[in-house]
Design a protein that fits this description.
homodimer, alpha+beta, Nitrilase/N-carbamoyl-D-aminoacid amidohydrolase, seven-stranded mixed beta sheet
Chain lengths: 271, 271
C-alpha cells in the first residue's frame, strides 16, 4: 500500500505503575484512543509494561521478561489488526536462559509482527544499570516498510549516537522512533536538570537535521520510587521533530499525554 | 608540552571586504589583539582572505588561490611565533593546475605548520557553488597535537555531518574548530532564517554532546554583495560549545567581534 502523503503519528507518554498488567491495559486503551483520533502509527515508551527496574541490580526483575514474539506481541497484534494502526512496543525480551534484550517490536497495521530491534547501546550509569539486564543487540539497525510508511526504531540511549540514527535512515526509514525512559536524578535536577534535558532534545533534533528525517522520542513520565534509592524523575517531554529540526509536537513534563504529529512524507509538517 | 588546564580560545568573527590584502592585514591585527588578551588558540572564518566568491561560478576567482604552505602560511607562521598562539587559518589552496581545495592550515605556537585539512563535504547550493572550485579533500579527518592542546579542524559544510566530528574526536581532538562562511539568502531570511540558524547551531551543539568535546564555529559577518546576484547575508553568531552542549561564548549577528572561550581540558568551562 502506498504511504499517504500525511501520516498521523501518536506519541503515547505514559506513567508506569508497579503492576505490569495494569500498565499493559493502559497502553492498549491509549492505542485505541489514539486510533479513534486518527493515529496511523502509535509508539509507546521504553519498557512500558513495568516501572524502570534498571534503577537497581536485582535478579527478581528477570521475571518481568518474556519472549518476543510472545504474550505481549500476540495481544498487540490483535490490537493493531482491530484498530488498523502500526504499533511500536518496547519489551523486555527473554531470548534464552541468561540472555535478555531490551527489544522493540514493530507491528504492522494488519497485525503482523514485522520484526524487532534489540537495543545496541546499553547504558550503565547510576540508576540506569542496564548492563546487568541486557545483552547488546545483534540484529543491526533496520528500516521496516509498514503499511503507513517506512520507519526505523532505536531505543533510548541510542539517542546519543549519531550512527544509530544514520543507519536506519540510510536503509530508507523516513521516521525514526525512540521509545525512551529518561529522567532526572532528584539530587542533580536543580544543578544539571535544564542542561541535561537540553542536551537530550538537541541530540534528537540533530538526528532529524543530519538525516533529513522525522524523529520522535516517546518518554515515560512521573517519579518512579524504588526501595532504598532516590528514584527517578522521568521528565516526560516526548516530542516529534521535522527534518528541519523544528519541534512539531511536544508533551509536558509531568503529565500523561498523547501527542499527535502529522508526518508529511513529502517533507512538510503540521501539528 | 602538557596542556594547561584552561586554554583561552579566540573566535575571530570578521567582515571580509573585496581586497584580500586588507582582509589578511585585518586578520593579523585580530590575532595580535587576541594574543594580547590572553588567547592561546585563534581561529579565523572560512576563506577569510576574500569575500565568499563561491556565490557564482567565475574562472577569474581561481586567481585568489595560493599554495599551502605558501605566501599566507609563511606570514602566519611568523605571527604565530611572534605572539605564541596556535592559528587555524582557512585558505583557498592551489594544489596543481586544475586541482584546488578548500583547506585549513594548523599552525603551532612556535610557528610550525603542523599540517592541513582539506574540506571533504563540498556543497553545491544556490550561492554556495563550491563544487565548481574545490576538489573534495584527500587527507582524512585529523587531530593535531598543538602546544596548546589537541585540536581537530573541519570546515563549514562538514558541520552537517556527524561523522566529520566523530573522526577527529576518535583521534583524540579535544576541541573541534569549524571555520565557517554561512548566511541567509536575503529572499529567504524572513521565512526560513530562524529555522536555518537554529538547525546550524543545533548541529554543532550535537557534535559537542555526542563526542564529549568542545566545539567552536567561526563565521564571517555582514552582507556580501555580488554583481548580478542578491548577495549573501553572513549571519555571524560564531560560538563555542562545552561538552555538555551549553553555549559558552557567542558573537552577535551583525558585528565584527572577537569572542573568547575558556576551554578546560578537564571538562569544565568558563567564559
Amino acid at each position: 500500500m502506498a504511504s499517504p502523503s500525511v501520516t498521523k503519528v501518536a506519541l503515547v507518554q505514559m506513567r508506569c505503575g508497579p503492576e505490569p498488567e495494569a500498565n499493559f491495559a493502559k497502553a492498549v486503551e491509549r492505542i485505541r484512543d489514539a486510533a479513534k483520533r486518527g493515529a496511523q502509527i502509535v509508539c509507546l515508551p521504553e519498557l512500558f509494561r513495568s516501572q524502570y527496574f534498571c534503577q537497581s541490580e536485582d535478579h527478581t526483575n528477570f521475571a518481568l521478561a518474556e519472549e518476543v514474539p510472545g504474550h505481549s506481541t500476540k495481544a498487540l497484534d490483535e490490537i493493531a489488526r482491530e484498530t488498523g494502526v502500526v504499533i511500536v512496543a518496547s519489551l523486555f525480551e527473554k531470548r534464552a536462559a541468561g540472555v535478555y534484550h531490551n527489544t522493540a517490536a514493530v507491528i504492522d497495521s494488519d497485525g503482523k509482527l514485522l520484526g524487532k530491534y534489540r537495543k545496541m547501546h546499553i547504558p550503565d550509569d547510576p540508576s540506569f544499570y542496564e548492563k546487568f539486564y541486557f545483552t547488546p543487540g545483534d540484529l543491526g539497525f533496520k528500516a521496516w516498510p509498514t503499511r503507513q510508511g517506512k520507519i526505523g526504531v532505536c531505543v533510548c540511549w541510542d539517542q546519543w549516537y549519531p550512527e544509530a540514527a544514520r543507519l536506519p535512515a540510510l536503509r530508507g526509514a523516513e521516521l525514526l522512533f525512540y521509545p525512551t525512559a529518561i529522567g532526572w536524578h532528584p539530587a542533580e535536577k536543580e544543578k544539571y536538570g535544564a542542561a541535561q534535558h537540553s542536551a537530550w532534545e538537541t541530540m534528537q533534533r540533530s538526528h532529524a537535521i543530519a538525516n533529513g528525517r522525522y524523529v520522535a522520542a516517546i518518554n515515560r513520565v512521573g517519579h518512579e520510587a524504588q526501595a532504598g534509592g532516590p528514584g527517578l524523575e522521568c521528565w516526560g517531554q516526548s516530542f516529534g521533530v521535522a527534518p528541519s529540526g523544528e519541534i512539531i509536537a511536544k508533551a509536558r513534563v509531568e503529565q500523561e499525554e498523547r501527542r499527535m504529529a502529522g508526518v508529511n512524507w513529502q517533507g512538510e509538517e503540521e501539528e
